[in-house]
From TrEMBL:
PANTHER family: ALIPHATIC SULFONATES IMPORT ATP-BINDING PROTEIN SSUB (PTHR42788:SF13), TAURINE IMPORT ATP-BINDING PROTEIN-RELATED (PTHR42788)
An example Gene Ontology molecular-function term: ATP binding
Compositional bias annotation for Polar residues: 254-264
Pfam families: ABC_tran
Listed name of the protein: ABC transporter ATP-binding protein
SMART domains to which the protein is assigned, alphabetical: AAA (SM00382)
Occurrences of domain ABC transporter (ranges): 5-233
InterPro entries in UniProt: AAA+_ATPase (IPR003593), ABC_transporter-like_ATP-bd (IPR003439), ABC_transporter-like_CS (IPR017871), ABC_transporter_ATP-bind (IPR050166), P-loop_NTPase (IPR027417)
Organism: Dactylosporangium roseum
PROSITE patterns according to UniProt: ABC_TRANSPORTER_1, ABC_TRANSPORTER_2
Keywords: ATP-binding, Nucleotide-binding, Transport
Length: 272
């Protein structure tokens, strides 16, 4: 399979007089059509790395490359935790927002917007403004907007973190179905190991700041994949292996050096 994203020797330092090393010596290759989830402690640079792939941040050292034949604009779309949709635009206007700069004509815009409104269950809300929508519906708008531009790479920065547990599961399952139907390269940042294993082909583990990649775990479950895999012993075993690698990094980031100081269940919740 061809490589799609090449991250080589990346470092990121913020500040001048008082500096913060956010990332150090990050190397990662992501294949075309691969769904990669990135986990790590809070503040380890996961979102910074994602924004570098989106060309929103530049590395202090190293390089980030997307292999593409597409001319500008940059061949990515991003979904944020806080939705990132415009409150003064209707749902359909938000979904259509990125199409005109990419040279998509009016007829094609209407077709794409209609298709993704239907796909995300938003057709009846096309003329509604975001203030009238729930958090879950707003995130559906954000996903529809990202997918409508048909990006080569979809970047998702903890898109379900602000939602309650039940709605989070619903949207995880919807995203799983969408990706399996419209396979494209996805980089997904999350604190949830359960979410990472359910969605990803590979789970990349980052260290405490400065963020480095300390492990990669290939998810063995075949596709098409269903949420039922959560109930399997293999799922639980993989989650435990990832947590064992991540645990000391979470303790370092949170200031807890005694593995028993938080308790197993409480510490795992921090990682999520």
């Amino acid at each position: 399979m061809a490589h799609k994203i090449l991250i080589k020797d990346v470092a990121k330092v913020y500040g001048t007089r008082q500096t913060v090393d956010a990332l150090a010596d990050v190397n990662l290759t992501i294949d075309d059509g691969e769904f990669v989830c990135i986990v790590g402690p809070s503040g380890c640079g996961k979102s910074t790395l994602l924004r570098m792939v989106a060309n929103l941040h530049r590395p202090t050292a190293g390089s980030v490359e997307i292999v593409t034949e597409r001319a500008q604009p940059w061949p990515t779309a991003m979904v944020f935790q806080d939705y990132g949709i415009f409150p003064w635009k209707t749902v359909e206007q938000n979904v259509a927002f990125g199409l005109r700069p990419r040279g998509v004509g009016r007829a094609e815009t209407r077709q794409r917007v209609g298709r993704w409104l239907q796909q995300m269950g938003l057709t009846d809300f096309a003329k509604v403004y975001p203030a009238s929508l729930s958090g879950g519906m707003r995130q559906r708008v954000s996903i529809a907007r990202a997918m409508a531009v048909e990006p080569e790479v979809l970047l998702m920065d903890e898109p379900f973190a602000a939602l309650d547990a039940q709605l989070r599961r619903v949207l995880q399952e919807e995203l799983l179905a969408i990706w399996q139907k419209n396979a494209r390269t996805v980089v997904f940042v999350t604190h949830s190991l359960d979410e990472a294993i359910l969605l990803g082909d590979r789970v990349v583990v980052m260290s405490a700041r400065p963020g480095r990649i300390i492990g990669e775990h290939h998810v063995p479950f075949p596709r098409p994949r269903t949420p039922d895999i959560r109930a399997t012993a293999e799922f639980a075993a993989l989650e435990q292996r990832i947590w064992e690698q991540l645990r000391s990094e979470v303790e370092q980031a949170t200031g807890h050096t005694d593995p028993t100081s938080l308790g197993e269940s409480a510490t795992l919740e921090v990682a999520r």
